[in-house]
Batch of 2 targets.
Target 1
Amino acid sequence: MPLELGEGTATLIGVVTVDEVEELAGWLRATTRPKVNLRRCNHLHTGAFQALLLFRPKVSAAPTDSFLAERVLPLLARQGSEPP
Amino acid sequence: MTETQPKVLVVDDAATVRMYHSTLLTEAGFEIHEAANGLEAVEAALGTAFDLFVVDVNMPKMNGYTCVETLRSETVGTPAPVIMISTEDRPGDADRAYAAGANLYLVKPVVPARLVRISRMLTGRGVAA
Amino acid sequence: MNPLLAQFLAEAADLLTQVDEGLLQLERTPGDPELVNEVFRAAHTFKGSSGLFDFPELTKLTHAAEDLLDAVRAGELPLDSGMTDDLLATFDLIRGWLAYVTTEERLPSTAGADAASLIVRLRAPIGGEVVREAPTLSGPQAGDVAPAWLAYFDEEWLAETAAWLRTTSSQMRFIRYAPDSGCFFRAEDPLHLIRQVPALDRLNVIEPVEWPEAADYDEYACLVAFVCATRAGMGEIQYLFRYVVDQFELVDLDGDAIQRYLSGEIEIEVEPESGTAEKQDQKPSSSTDPALLADARAVLAASLKALALNPTNTCHLISLAKAITYAAHAFGDPVEIQEPDVVTLTATVTRLLGDTAEAVEDPVRTVVPLVAADEAPAAERRADDPGGQVGSRILKVDQEKVDHLMELVGELNVAKNGLTFLAGAAEEEFGSRALARRIKDQYSGLHRIAEELQASVMDIRMLPLSVAFSRFPRLVRDLSRRLGKNIELVLEGEDTMADKDVIEALADPLVHLVRNSLDHGIETSDERLASGKPTTARITLTAVADGDAVIVEIADDGRGVDPARVRRKAYEKGLISEEELETLSDVDAVDLVFRPGFSTAEQISDLSGRGVGMDAVRASVEKLGGTVTMRSELGIGTSTRLRLPLSMAVTQVMVVSVAGQRFGIPVDLVVETVRVPVDEMNRVLHQDVVVLRGEVIPVLDLARALDMPWIPDDNRDRAILIANVGGQRVGLLVEQFHREVDVILKPMEGLLAYADEFSGTALLGDGLVLLVLNMKEVLGLAARVG
């Protein structure tokens, strides 16, 4: 199961596909001060990524997947969009 | 809209280039046939009415110019547009292509989107009416 | 690996072989125009395909080789052996690169440096370096103008990158990927696509200017866009993004372009927009796609040229009418052409071009910035251009698939053999002879099918010996040059077929034998002259089929083996006794060279003297179930003959057991099985022997040799298997004989890999693993145990 939705923390595991996007977005929408654990996440569907970008949960554990860690995490960590 | 797929004959001796062009055009909705030299192309054209030819210049057995000439000759007599694609461009090559009967002479590598665009245009597809 | 690259690597392997073979043949028949053309063709095709990838060094190097070959083809200069060396070195280097590409999907970082000196050498005979870059896919956009969306990259990084790109005169690809909002419904995952971009250097997300309220947020609408920077090739990127061409934009920028952007030299017409629903078009354009307009214009301009150059062919005119009509349609200016004659068409095109365009561009030049037009030798290509063998009706199958099929056949055989066990059980355990017979009937039906299946799979695996021979022209050529000997290599019977495993296994022994001939067998030219021989020596490699075996012979007309010297040497090394020194026949003496520890070479040369002797050759051939023999005549020459099974996939073994453990012995070695009453066993000099038809045969106890707990029962006859090992008869005392079975022999692996007394393992029908004995080693063990 790619999504483990807890009280305040969602754990994303393996490949998060488009099928998980709705559930994740719903959880983010409903949770106050959500946290996500990405350690065991291998890929984030763009829809999931976009939801994280919008709701900006705190990332409680960084992914080990190198693409997510090096390329995607910095985008999530960034404060706001910065079009020049 | 149910259209029959335009039939394109991709002629190139380099298998990789053939695959490249074929993949692009197949994905763009063309029905692709392949030939590895001019002779095979002429043979194929005798059996099938193609809507477009994409022909390499430098090939063994029968080169692109002779191939296109033969396609336009009475032997085959195809009025379908011909795009010739050459690996290198030497002075006079374009003229030879047009004299042989090509409709457009391009130099490799052709940007994929452009090949698709031109192929669509020359088969009367994809041109927004 | 993407399928395009895989295709290229497969094609490249074929082309490189063609080039190599052609070059070597050319040395023998210099100037043969067909050969030159063939080699040129292969190199040309190779370059054409390589241009699809971002391997600039590869394309450059091939281009240099191709230019040299082109000059040879045009008769401008003859191909000398120095040039051949350079060309061979070039394609060797390329072969090495491709091996690297196979695993790494990029060229080794040393490629540029490695290629540079070769390019200089290749270009030297044709007037030195030509500044003429082969176009690669990056051609059209190389030196593109920086787009406004560069603003989404970190400025500091851009500045650094610009400086670096300028220093190294290289470029970087920048992508803007604005997926449309419905893309998730088409199963597209933009982030997944970006993940696949090779050599990704930077990634940034473009968020919508305004996010919707959380309550209104539609998680299935894609609202974000991406920009990234990569060192991947244009071809790779375009291939990757081929499904979303309408959603992405790609530019190839050099340092200058980025610098100009940074210093604000370019006017930015469009502010970076939020990449939501908008399409990619940032260029100022009329209502229609500007690219399409440009293409339409190119077609019209081309039509004008074609009309001038070929105004009479009716088919051509009709095709031009079509093209013109379609192009006009693209302009939104439809025309109707009633009469496709030159005058009407020319008038139509001229009007359309006048109406639509700024300056009419040369259709070619709009596509690709033209390569510097240097004096090109007349492009006289004949219609009957001979060359390449493309298009043969051969299905290329991945070797692994055939191997897998063979494994399945093996398993089928094993399963099939299981039926005979079942039949035995039906009769013995359940007492049903009728059932046993029915099972046996089923077995024979299955057996027939399995045999046919096996035969056809084996047939697929059959390769001509030319595969094993193909490396020798090159090897002999290189070595003979190094040794300063003149050698002609003759290949015969290359069409003889054998199983691919046999052919592969043959490679090393053959190389060793040929090197040996070159090194020790063949005299120097002076020596040959002195002994009245032609200065050019000859090495002949012959293959012939012989029943279910293939015989490969390596013969040379060199100095031959001196039996007297061999005898003396063997004696000095303690390999033979003083008595043998006197009595050993010349034929037997020559065979001494296969003894471990024997080497006739006075000094070890750098060629064959790598510690691998003829004994290793014999060992490896025997491991394949083959034999090696050597015949030699002093002063006349030597010939070494390898006899190998045509196929080694299936081995027939005789199953025996001792201490309850079963072992296999290759049936080829088994002479007979006998049961000898205990009192007929004899002992001679601490050695058990049995006398069969007047012949005294030593008998070895397998249990003792393998250190297994088994003492023969004195009340039962001794079961002795008589085997022929290395021309000698030996008896092997075992507990019990079983049947003969067909097995697929697998090499020993893991812990057992060092157990030399076994040549392999096989799976039996009842699921047990059978160890197949390496009889030679077993005899050695038995002798040591004594």
Target 2
Amino acid sequence: MTYIVKPQFHHPSLNKNALGFTRRDYEGRVSTLCAGCGHDSISAAIVQACFEIDLEPHRLAKLSGIGCSSKTPDYFLSASHGFNTVHGRMPSVLTGANLANRELIYLGVSGDGDSASIGLGQFAHVMRRGVNMTYIVENNGVYGLTKGQFSATADKGSKSKKGVVNSDSGIDMVALALQLGATFVGRSFSGDKDQLVPLIKAALTHKGAAFIDVLSPCIAFNNHAGSTKSFDWVREHNEAVNRLDVMLGRAPVTADYAPGELVEVAQHDGSILLLRKVAADYDATDRVKAMAYLQERNAVGEIVTGLLYVDPEADDLHDALNTVPTPLNRLSDAQLTPGSAALAKVNARLR
Amino acid sequence: MSRPLAAINDFVVKFANVNGSGSASANGLFVKSILRMGVPVAARNIFPSNIQGLPTWYEIRVSGQGWMGRRGGVDLMVAMNPQTWDRDLAEIEAGGYLFYDSTKPMPPEKFRADITVVGVPLTRICNAAYAEPSKRKVLKNIIYLGALTFLLGIERDVVEALLAEEYASKPALIPANIEALSLGFNYASENLRTLGLQLKRADAVGDRIFVDGNTAASLGAVYGGATVCAWYPITPSTSLAEGFIDYCKTLRHDPETGEARYAIVQAEDEIASIGIVVGAGWNGARAFTCTSGPGISLMQEFIGLSYFAEIPAVIFDVQRGGPSTGMPTRTQQSDILSAAYASHGDTKHVLLLPEGPGECFEMGAQAFDLADRLQTMIFVMLDLDMGMNEWLTEPFTWDDSKQLDRGKVMTAEMLDAGADFGRYKDVDGDGIPFRTLPATHPSKGAYFTRGTSRDPYARYSEEGAVYVDNMERLLRKFDTARSLVPAPITRAAKKQTSYGVIYYGSTSPAMDEALAALEAKGLHLDAMRVRAFPFPGEVFDFIARHELVFVVEQNRDAQLRTLLINEGGVDPARLVKVLNYDGSPITARFIGGELARGMGATDMANTGEMAR
């Protein structure tokens, strides 16, 4: 439907955020994905999250790899620069972009083929380097654009639309992200906007490598009985450990909660993550326990969702490299080129 | 018995060592001592892909006249490696000299009658003086340095001064080294005569510096304003990244806060390296990676993206012997075609072809201006010979009035003034569009970058006409590159001639000597050193002016010649291949012999070093 130009007008009573933008200002072109695709719900959640955190659209850079999910950055934030890179290589391109200008917000959108198969290596390394980014995997367990092959996140025993049973173990990207040192890890479901929007808001405000695995059923090739990535299956097996609200700035917490039910986590940028516990003894700030919990629940067939881990004091790659606060792409000639006097000294040491 | 060779400040010494034996330090001192005596030296390390135990050679060309290429042949062999004794012995010129450790007696058939054999019982001297194995191993090298100091007439105080400089940070080691030097010197002076090969103080070095091309290129990247380096270790390019790390430490920190004005990432592989470079280039930072042939193979997909999505990026390719792992520690010019036409689909890339460390610095800086100006991938094609060997080079210079050329970047002011921004629109007729950087303007100038076909306004389109229009513009841009890249350098022969020779890269110093030798024999050729691809028109004019043009290269398939034929429609019969690709740097004798033969002369025989 690329021939359809999205109309720009909107209802005058549409809400505006603190910057005076409406939700429409965060939208993109008309999606070309199948009607009912989970990915479009995720795009809508990204739009909503950016609107709610008062993000200036042009201050975000959106990058993706190749595949259905990687097409979606065209369908949100049309005032942002976007880069549809190479299959499985979004993490490296985003790392370079981030090094060039540390002031922008970086959103990487990828799929399970793009990130768990061809791009598994780059996914691993961008997490372990702590690149300050939000990494969303739109996970449907299947290759959509090439019509229905299993991806590496398909569960063992899951059945394809053609009836083939997957004999390979599925890769759990949440477990990998935790092991690799991601400092924010969440999982959600494209059909649960109330859970997904706050998670994206929190990830965008998190400093460090933030990863969200979003189960996003493929209605064309992976939404049948026997699939463990179908709408029905995910709804039935979804077990949220917590419910998240993101408060920008130091707003007082007034809601009524029994002691111990509400956990407050302050992030670098001053935002507060309010976690309402659903699983009573789940601690989202303990990486080791989170890993153990996920393994236990996974073994009994549950899909654990929510904010699974956060380190609010995380450092990022720029901290490790001790780079100047000025973006590298704005340094002046004088700051970059040492000049002839310095060169004379270099020459002297080479004689 | 041939007459012993006699020469002053003009000979070739080759050290045959075992790697990991600590010989590099003594051999380096030998070279620096000669330089300090004002005599030009070219040194080349020939080493295995190994850390300890395999043969390694260090070949030193002493040339008062200043010839800095490999000459061919060996006048004095310092044979310290029993594993390679036979071939080392065979390499010595008739009338040449063999220096060896005579501690253990050797049967007479292990020597040659037509050379002068100089034995010094190095192990015996060393073991008598030192008990500790670690000292024995290292100081044996200094003992042979002492003996050679006497035999070749090197000024002893120069060597001692260098030893003191070498160990300035560990002064406790100085006396032991001076003592070892004396042991060797004294044995030689008491038991041997000086050789026919002698060094005499001269004034032919001037203010030249002694530096390898990787170091020079990394310094060029600093001066060219590179801020992002992503790399993966691979011989022979590793020291380029390490050079950048070192120079950034001293030249690129904020003097007040100590913070870094650069970011260097050792990536997980070459694909991630070039991905980081492309991402940084897209976002307006000057970025590069350095690699060798196998890395170029891995980077193909991203190179195509850089070409088609028009993203500035720089690759330093320090070429080595391929294909596959090939000869990873030997030199070749064998990535020319794979770089020029890298990636799938119709692509062409700008190559810069430095001749040595001086141009590695200049082109290393210039590459970033060209990348930003042309918004594409720029290759700087070094090779192992120039990359990893220290060459005597004119000092680096920099014009402080020079400004970095950031190319066509549309600013918020231009957008507000009403500029019609089309990311892939040819506004100036040179094929180069304007780009915006992310976050330039709150509501104008954003666009979606992709490797998929799109119209001048960056809108996705797979319409044939739109695609062709864009591909034709990319050709116009490549034509623009022709006028921006370094021009070839032509040297006219002293006499009118119908012969020409084209060469490039590290062949340069050997070519200088070969041309002088040919001229001395009355064989005249016009010479052109090509410095970049796409070829400026004068390259084809040069070919057209000559009946026969030799193309001298260090690869098997005559890759530059193929490019010349393909790009210029040149008749292949007029371009004669002269190819050295055995992994050793090309020699003046090889070039001279091949060209003389090609010109019908028979009295300048090629030494046959390049086996085919």
